[in-house]
Amino acid sequence: QSAGGEAMNENKFLNTESSTGSVETTVKPLPFKDPNFIHSGIGGAAAGKKNRTWKNLKQILASERALPWQLNDPSYFNIDAPPSFKPAKKYSDISGLPANYTDPQSKLRFSTIEEFAYIRMLPSDVVTGYLALRKATSIVS
């Protein structure tokens, strides 16, 4: 803004007063704005939409049973996914925290030094029980 000038609006003119006189220039409309745009409703862009009601899994399954499905159509009853490309996460056999380490003797996973000391004090039958819980195939002999 200059001295005595007015703010510039879209599709309006800019009036600046200087010592030489009054100059009027037209401003070109912005190319990314549609001058004929009208909102779809009074409340803004989402005014015309009706409110969506959320369905829980039980309601979704009941509505799926009512539809005429073919035998091989996918549904929430038979969700099959391909195996993941990411490696499986490893958790501690003692605490359940994410485990970065594995004991080479017992093959138990642990996350802290305290767990490692605890694993080394365990008798072999307890170690075997932990491995059986994890369904590990290598059992310490």
Global shape? elongated
Model regions low in confidence, pLDDT < 50 over at least 5 residues: 1-13
Average predicted local confidence, pLDDT: 76
Radius of gyration from CA coordinates? 35 Å
Residue share in helices? 10-25%
How much strand content do the residues show? Answer: 5-15%
Q: Strand order within the widest sheet?
A: 1-2
- Major sheet summary line: 2 strands, antiparallel
Helical stretch tally: 3
Note the main attributes of this structure.
single chain; 141 residues; alpha+beta; two-stranded antiparallel sheet; 21% helix; disordered N terminus
Description:
The protein is an alpha+beta fold and 141 residues long. The chain has 3 helices and 4 strands. The protein has helices at residues 57-66, 113-121, 124-134; strands spanning 13-18, 21-26, 101-102, 109-110. A two-stranded antiparallel ribbon has the order 1-2. Strands 3-4 form a two-stranded antiparallel ribbon. Strand 1 and strand 2 form a beta hairpin. The longest helix is centred in the last third of the chain and has 11 residues, at 124-134. The radius of gyration is 35 Å and the shape is elongated. It starts with 12 loop residues before the first strand and ends in a 7-residue tail after the last helix. Mean pLDDT is 76; it is low at 1-13.
Summarize the entry for a quick read.
The protein is α+β, with helices and mostly antiparallel strands and 141 residues long.
Layout: helices, strands, pairs:
Layout: E1 13-18, E2 21-26, H1 57-66, E3 101-102, E4 109-110, H2 113-121, H3 124-134
